[in-house]
Amino acid sequence: METKVYAARIKDKEELLASSSGGIFTAVSDLAISEGDAIVSAVYNYSSNRNEFTLYTSKAERDKARGSKYMQAIPGDSYITAEEWLKNNKGKVYFFGMGCQADGFRKFAKSRGLKDRVVIIDIICHGVPSPKIWNDYIGGKIEYVTFKDKTDGWKKPRAFIIRNGEKEEISEYDRIFYGDWALRPSCYKCRYATTERKVDITIGDYWGIDRIMPDFYSPDGNSLVLIHSDKGMELWKKIQSKLEYKESDLVECIQPNLAHPTNEPLNRVEFWSDYKKGGIDRILKKYASEKMKTKIVKKLKRVVKTIKNR
Ligand SMILES: Cc1cc2nc3c(=O)[nH]c(=O)nc-3n(C[C@H](O)[C@H](O)[C@H](O)COP(=O)(O)OP(=O)(O)OC[C@H]3O[C@@H](n4cnc5c(N)ncnc54)[C@H](O)[C@@H]3O)c2cc1C
User: Fold this and answer.
1) What percent of the chain has pLDDT over 90?
2) Sheet of 4-10: strands edge to edge?
3) Is 39 in the pocket of ligand 1 (CB under 6 A)?
4) Cβ distance 234 to 147 under 8 Å?
């Protein structure tokens, strides 16, 4: 079918504020849980400080999966766990992951004859940083991490961790993320930075919505939803009553990572060489300073201007 495009957000304000964008992940996973299905998505493991694909069937577990985490998620044995769950249960598995991960799961499900029992939702992705840098940065045990706290609104997300009960800003790490040096090499050649995808639904932030549909924009969060298949449309109809939504199209919703992969910074090799020689302290000093912040803000402004001029 032809891809259908929507701007959307979950009606429940508490759920919206707890989500990174418009809470579509919560609306879909609520439905899955209520119908006895399972979900596989990235969950931050506070014991190992790793972002791990995990299978779960409860709201309590799902709540832990919420929120964008700016480090690559590790698949582990999640595909096999999903296959086993499908063998032992009657329901479906909903898979949420980045374009590359979701396509991997799609191919796996097809090869195991499980295509009809999985629903695949991929997430628009700017690229994911190396988990090694995250682990070096964080150093030890933490109790909580968020990259998209909405206290100042969806457009100005705050990133922080909680360690020993105290809040610590992680804006330096955020700057490394947005500077694009730490992304995986494959991210600069991403085949999934397009609106043409083989999954059922794609979700992301609806950037530019305040200009495109000012009457629909909410400072609390706005999702972009691309529906690619009949299965996706069936799912969309089932969650509509939980959402506020408005139809859009593939031209007005376009954003950089739906058009092309993130550009590799010219000094990426230098960044990694600095990291190998001087470790995390050296790259924080050289690449995450306030001066670098000004450069990144300028770059982001240029990206926003390019989108506005389209
Ligand atoms: C590294 C990263 C880059 C992104 N880049 C863009 C972008 O350029 N443009 C855009 O429109 N949107 C981007 N997003 C997506 C956006 O931030 C939201 O995650 C998405 O819109 C879902 O929001 P929600 O409110 O529906 O769900 P939420 O409740 O916030 O749930 C987040 C979902 O994402 C999954 N998730 C979180 N972190 C990861 C991860 N590292 N790897 C795999 N799955 C993860 C969770 O398991 C959950 O399924 C990015 C997300 C991440 C993690």
Assistant:
1) 93
2) 50-56, 38-45, 93-98, 118-123, 201-205, 223-227, 4-10, 243-248
3) no
4) no
Does residue 19's CB lie within 6 angstroms of at least one atom of ligand 1?
yes
**pLDDT at position 137 over 70:** yes
Which residue type sits at 34? Answer: S
What is the whole-number distance in angstroms between the Cα of residue 278 and the centre of ligand 1? 31
> How many angstroms separate the alpha carbon of residue 277 from the centre of ligand 1?
32
Q: What Cα–Cα distance (Å) separates residue 202 from each residue in 59, 64, 304? A: 22, 21, 22
| Residue of the CA atom closest to atom 23 of ligand 1 | 21
Residue pair 145/124 in contact (Cβ under 8 Å)? The answer is no
**Would you say the CB of residue 146 lies under 6 angstroms from ligand 1?**
no
Cβ(26) to ligand 1 under 6 A? Answer: yes
What is the pLDDT at residue 279? Answer: 95
pLDDT in tens, 26-72: 999 999 999 999 999 999 999 999 999 999 999 999 999 999 999 99
Distance CA(99)–CA(292), nearest Å, equals 29
Give residue 228's pLDDT band: very low, low, confident or very high (50, 70, 90): very high
Query: Rounded mean pLDDT of 141-149?
Result: 96
140: amino acid identity, one letter: G
Residue 54 in contact with ligand 1 by CB distance below 6 A:
no
Beta-carbon contacts of 266 under 8 Å, excluding residues fewer than 6 positions away, are none
- Index of the ligand 1 atom closest to the CA of residue 69: 38
